[in-house]
Amino acid sequence: xxxxxxxxxxxxTVAAFSMAGLRFKRIYENIRMGQPEPxxxxxxxxxxxxxxxxxxxxxxxxxxxxxxxxxxxLLTQVELLEIFLDGFTGRHRLIYYAVQDSAFGxxxxxxxxxxxxxxxxLAFAATLAFLARRNLLKVLRFVKSEMNGWPRLDGNxxxxxxxxxxxxxxxxxxxDEALHRAEGKGSYGFLLSGNAxxxxxxxxxxxTLAVLERVGWWFHILVVxxxxxxxxxxxxxxxxLAFPNxxxxxxxxxxxxxxxxxxQREIQSMLDPSALSGEALPPPDQFGAKDVQDLSWKQxxxxxxxxxxxxxxxxxxxxxxxxxLSPRKIMMDTRDRMEELSLNRxxxxxxxxxxxxxxxxxxSTEELRACTTCNACVQECPVSINxxxxxxxxxxxxxxxxxxxxxxxxxxxxxxxNNGAPxxxxxxxxxxxISQTEA
Length: 439
Ligand code: SF4
Ligand code: SF4
Hints:
Layout: H1 4-32, E1 39-41, H2 43-51, H3 60-89, H4 94-99, H5 103-135, H6 150-182, H7 206-230, H8 238-247, E2 248-250, H9 261-271, H10 297-305, H11 311-315, H12 317-320, H13 327-348, H14 358-362, H15 365-369, H16 376-380, H17 387-401, H18 407-419, H19 432-438
Antiparallel strand pairs: 1-2
Helix pairs in contact: 1-3, 1-7, 1-10, 2-8, 3-5, 5-6, 6-7, 8-10, 10-13, 13-17
Bound molecules: iron/sulfur cluster (SF4) (2 copies).
The site of one iron/sulfur cluster has 15 residues, from α11 and α13.
C-alpha cells in the first residue's frame, strides 16, 4: 500500500497544475485582446519595484509587514521542493536524510527550515495586523464603496489561507520534531519547532504524532494547491504579474500623454501649415477607447496586476474632494469587463457582441470628467500601474466620438479650434495686453 500516498499526491498535483494552467492561459489570452503598445524591458524596474518593493517603503510599518509575508512566501517555496519530492517518492524528509552526513549540507538545510519558521512567525503576526487593519481599524482606503462584496472578501480569504498555511507548517514541523525525539533520534535542530513548538506535541503518543505530522503535511500542500487555483481569480495575482508589469516599462515618460497623430497633425496645420509634409492621415475608425479591446495589452496587464491596495485612490484629489472617481475602481472595472467579455466570447464564439462596453456600463461619464490628470495615481502605484492612461483613452472616445463634453469644455475646444488658444479672443489680439500695460 506504500504506493497509495504517492499516487494520490501525483493525481492531485497534475489536477491542480492543469486547472491553474487553463486559467492562466485564459488570462494570457485576455491580455492579448488588447492593442499593440511599444514597451521596453527594464530589469532594473523589475528588481526595484517588484522584487525590492521600493515604493512600498514610503510607509515603513506596512512595508515591513508586507515584506515579512512576501519573503515567507518566497522562502517557503524551498521547503515545497522537499514536500514535492517526498510526495512523489513516498519518502519522509528526503533532502534532510540525503544531506545529514554532510556538515555543510545539514547546516544549510537546518538554516533554511529555521529561516522559514522565523519568517512564518513574522508572517503570522503581519497577517493578524492586516486582518485588523481591514476589519477592525477600517482604514479608509479599504472601505471605499468599490471594495464592497467580493473585493473585501477576497482580501480576507487570502489572509485566512495564510493562517491555515502557517498553522500547517508548525503542526508538521512540531509533531515531526516530537516524533523524532520520541524515537530516540534527537532533535532536527530547527530554530522554532526544535526549541519551542514541539513542546505543544510532547504529550502525544508516537502514533498520534505520526498522524498529526501527516495532517500538517497534507494541509500544507492542499493549501498550496488551493492557493494556486484561487490566485488567478483573485487580486493576489499581483504576486506573479507585478514582475512582468514592472519589467515592461512604457516608452513614454512619466506623466506624458500619448499623442493622437491625426489630431496632432490637425493642430500643426492650424499653427503652421507650411511645416506639414506628406499626405493627410486617414481618419481612424474611432478615437480613444470604448471597450477593453480598444485598450493596449499593457493597460490590460495593468488591470490584472492591480493589488487593489487603494494607494492611488487615497492620493487622488478628485476622490479626496468627494467626486465619484476612484482610480482603483477604473482598474477593477477594466479587469471585470475583460472577464465578462472573455466569458461571453467563450460561450458564444469570438465574434460575439454582448451590447455592453467598459465606457458606460462600468465606468461613467461623471467619473471620467472628474479626473484632473494630475498623475498622482500613477506616482503612488507600487506596481507601476497607470490608471490615468485608461481614463484618458475613455475620455477621448467620449469627447471625440460621442461629442460628450460639458458646456465649459466645449467652449474651450471651440476657442482652440478658432483662435489656436483656449481664450475667447483672436490670435491677432494676443499682444494687446502689452500696449494696455504700457499705457
Ligand atoms: S490623474 Fe486623475 S485619477 Fe489619477 S490621481 Fe489625478 S485626478 Fe485622480
Ligand atoms: S492601481 Fe496601483 S495603487 Fe491603485 S489599487 Fe491598483 S495596485 Fe494599488
